[in-house]
Write a structure and sequence with these properties.
The chain is built from 6 helices and 14 strands. It is of the alpha/beta class. The protein has a domain of about 180 residues: Rossmann fold. The protein starts with 6 loop residues before the first strand and ends in a 12-residue tail after the last strand. The N terminus and C terminus are likely disordered.
């Protein structure tokens, strides 16, 4: 069992994902102060995501969380089974909050760039729930139909392919990699707790999404942050993962995750369950 709540600072000199040559900052420095308020005010259903993940993963095992954030999903997941989780995030602000939330749990927290993080012993599975990689359903308000699109904090397709290959190397043979599915990015506003309104504005260019988060109380701007993501369409990202050595198991029954497995042969995407 890993030591609980040990925080390792990355010694890599590489820039955090998505910041090379850009004024946008994907480290969630400004967003961190409002993150839990937003995520627990209807932005994400962590109970649903954790329950679905528990169905995908075996009970127990060593799990790599690729972008653990403040530990909201991990907290829910550990109520369902005793996983040994290593959570990586390049945002120190997020890791600091996760350390407080997950104190006493079998979780190793690492402040690092996932592209350079590695350990000698392979993981049983990896997850990314709104982390370094996420998937959206582009065409439909429901995740049960439509076309899928991969979003990546990496600078471009090649960097994303390199990350997929790196994650492949961190898993044992047969290990699964589950990537969460969400609705497509769009302009939106949401009232959250403490009298704050959350707004997001998106703009698209070929292969790129620029997304600005704003938090306001009345007309007063409390915080603002812009991130930049690379996006890759469904056929292309399935090919990318196949090239990295993953087989595609499809969308889980809850339609919350795309599931890949280290090794095997690539499969066509089945229709998600009811």
């Amino acid at each position: 069992m890993s030591a609980a709540n040990t925080t390792t600072l990355s010694s890599s000199s590489s820039e955090p994902l998505g910041t090379s040559g850009s004024r946008d900052d994907n480290r969630y420095v400004e967003l961190a102060a409002f993150y839990d308020n937003l995520m627990t005010s209807g932005y994400y259903d962590y109970d649903s995501f954790a329950t679905a993940l528990h169905q995908i993963l075996d009970d127990g095992g060593e799990i790599l969380d690729v972008g653990i954030g403040t530990g909201l999903l991990t907290e829910k997941l550990l109520r369902l089974a005793r996983y040994d989780i290593t959570g990586i995030d390049f945002s120190k602000s997020m890791i600091d909050q996760a350390r407080l939330r997950l104190k006493g749990h079998p979780v190793t927290l690492v402040h690092a760039d996932i592209r350079t993080y590695s350990r000698e012993r392979p993981f049983d599975a990896a997850i990314s729930c709104g982390g370094a990689l996420c998937i959206s359903n582009v065409l439909a308000p429901s995740r049960e139909k439509g076309r899928l699109r991969l979003y990546s904090f990496c600078d471009d397709r090649q960097a994303t392919a390199n990350l997929a290959m790196h994650l492949h190397g961190q898993l044992r043979p047969g290990g699964r990699f589950a990537i969460s599915i969400q609705g497509e990015h769009a302009d939106a506003a949401l009232p959250i707790r403490h009298g704050i309104t959350y707004q997001q504005a998106v703009s698209f260019a070929p292969g790129k999404l620029r997304k600005t988060y704003r938090f306001l109380r009345g007309r007063r701007l409390l915080g603002e942050q812009t991130i930049s993501l690379t996006y890759i369409e469904e056929a292309d990202f399935l090919a990318l993962f196949a090239e990295a050595g993953f087989s595609y198991e499809g969308v889980d029954a809850s339609a919350n995750y795309c599931i890949f497995r280290k090794g095997g042969s690539c499969l066509n995407r089945p229709r998600p369950g009811p």
